[in-house]
Amino acid sequence: MFTSQGPTLRELAVQALSSTEHGYDLLAPKFDHTPFRTPGRFLAATAEALRPLGPFGAGLDVCCGTGAGVETLLPLCRERVTGVDFSAGMLAAAAAGVPGRQEGPAVEWVRADARALPFAEGFDLAVSFGAFGHFLPAERPALFAGVHRSLRPGGLFAFPIGAPQPLSSPWYWAMLGFDGTMRVRNLLRRPRFVMYYRTFPLGGVRDDLADAGFDVRLLPLEEFGRRPDGSPRWRLVVARKAERA
Ligand SMILES: C[S@@+](CC[C@H](N)C(=O)[O-])C[C@H]1O[C@@H](n2cnc3c(N)ncnc32)[C@H](O)[C@@H]1O
Q1: In what order do the strands lie in the sheet with 77-85?
Q2: 82 near 59, Cβ under 8 Å?
Q3: Which domains does the chain carry?
């Protein structure tokens, strides 16, 4: 939740009326005091699920923001960990909050658009947290193709994904309302601020990952419990790039 050190309502409104990139530049100094930074229990659950699949050499945090995923990757990777984001403000906050280290993997920050990642076969593990709402469904193929290209043969792309909210949940209606408001905002105002809660469904995401060349597995994140029908509330998508033939 927001704390007294977080952004004011006015600051949030100005951010939402900017482009996605500039909005994050504005929010960056206070981002870690908002609920938008991925909470520690999601990071810890992801690390726990990935640890038996490692150790990894080089790690990549896609849409790293202030570095939540980079910090998660550090104990899992031996060579180096790279955070990539298109907001210069977020990268500056990340570099200030996650200083370089004398020992362990090197940390580096790269400014780039995740829809055109500038890497080729450089990483063994890529993760992403809390950012997929910033991509329209039509942009997913470019995003996933870029991650696939960035990974070495046999590399993994992993991220948590939540089960859809049931109609009976107040969250279902809150997200529907938020997405509707953003659609109206983006019809009426340029530049767009792209942020939607309901545009990243597991079925479509799985298909797009497979089309990009990934072999997809789902690991239940049991710490978040199960729904009444027995399915996990949260899963870790683990998409593997094929080994070289
Ligand atoms: C909600 S923040 C999440 C940050 C961090 N991953 C976390 O979990 O705390 C979303 C981040 O995605 C970045 N982002 C959004 N669209 C992007 C794009 N097309 N290319 C690179 N970064 C992008 C924003 O700049 C922002 O830092």
Answers
A1: 106-111, 77-85, 56-62, 123-128, 151-162, 234-241, 214-220
A2: yes
A3: 1-36 (no CATH), 38-164+201-241 (3.40.50.150)
CB atoms within 10 A of CB 216: 16
CA of 200 to the centre of ligand 1 (A): 15
3-class DSSP state for residue 220? strand
| pLDDT per residue as tens, the chain (245 positions) | 567 889 999 999 999 999 999 999 999 999 999 999 999 999 999 999 999 999 999 999 999 999 999 999 999 999 999 999 999 999 999 999 997 777 889 999 999 999 999 999 999 999 999 999 999 999 999 999 999 999 999 999 999 999 999 999 999 999 999 999 999 999 999 999 999 999 999 999 999 999 999 999 999 999 999 999 999 999 999 999 999 87
232 touches ligand 1 (CB under 6 Å): no
The alpha carbon of 204 and the centre of ligand 1 are apart by a number of angstroms equal to 21
Report the nearest atom of ligand 1 relative to the CA of 43. Answer: 8
Pairing of strands 106-111, 77-85: parallel
